[in-house]
């Protein structure tokens, strides 16, 4: 029956690992499974704890750096939160100058300012987010398409 406690510990470590993604609790979960194996064969409690500690430490020291490096090399990096907003288009809601303004970005109203000094951006115009500085979107005018009917120099 003692093996069931080790399986429970392994499951708890597994859940914590899913929340942290540090590969530390994954190694502890494998150590707990080793303890469950010894408990299934009626090993003394001190041997179970010693095995859990030894297996966990060996995995943390020996396997974790390789596992972490392999995952970082093979899994593509995905930008999230404000990092994912750079490069997106926004609509000017209130005139944007080098100091102040408002844009609608990703369905929300953001305070905004221009990246470089220039004429103010009028409401309704489309801009591109260059960066996010705190709670302020740093924007620049959307470059005109070469085939835009309002472009005085269209390409044919």
Automatic annotation (TrEMBL):
Entry annotated with the keyword Transmembrane: yes
Domain called NfeD-like C-terminal: residue spans: 82-141
Superkingdom of the source species: Bacteria
Keywords: Hydrolase, Membrane, Protease, Transmembrane, Transmembrane helix
Mode of membrane association: Multi-pass membrane protein
SUPFAM superfamilies documented for this protein: NfeD domain-like (SSF141322)
Cross-referenced Gene3D superfamilies: Nucleic acid-binding proteins
Subcellular location: Membrane
GO biological process terms held by the UniProt record: proteolysis
Cellular component aspect of the GO annotation: plasma membrane
Transmembrane segments: 12-39, 45-63
A GO molecular-function descriptor: peptidase activity
Main location: membrane
PANTHER family in the record: INNER MEMBRANE PROTEIN YBBJ
UniProt-recorded name of the protein: Membrane protein implicated in regulation of membrane protease activity
Source species: Bogoriella caseilytica
């Amino acid at each position: 029956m003692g093996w069931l406690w080790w399986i429970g510990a392994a499951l708890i470590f597994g859940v914590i690992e899913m929340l942290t993604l540090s590969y530390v609790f994954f190694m502890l979960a494998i150590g707990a499974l080793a303890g469950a194996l010894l408990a299934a064969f009626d090993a003394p409690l001190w041997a179970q704890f010693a095995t859990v500690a030894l297996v966990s430490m060996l995995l943390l020291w020996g396997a974790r750096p390789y596992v972490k490096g392999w995952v970082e090399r093979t899994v593509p990096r995905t930008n999230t939160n404000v990092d994912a907003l750079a490069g997106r288009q926004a609509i000017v809601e209130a005139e944007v100058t080098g100091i102040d303004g408002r844009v609608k970005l990703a369905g929300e109203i953001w305070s905004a300012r221009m990246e470089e000094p220039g004429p103010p951006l009028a409401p309704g115009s489309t801009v591109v987010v260059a960066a996010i500085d705190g709670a302020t979107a740093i924007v620049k005018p959307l470059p005109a398409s070469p085939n835009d009917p309002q472009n005085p120099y269209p390409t044919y």
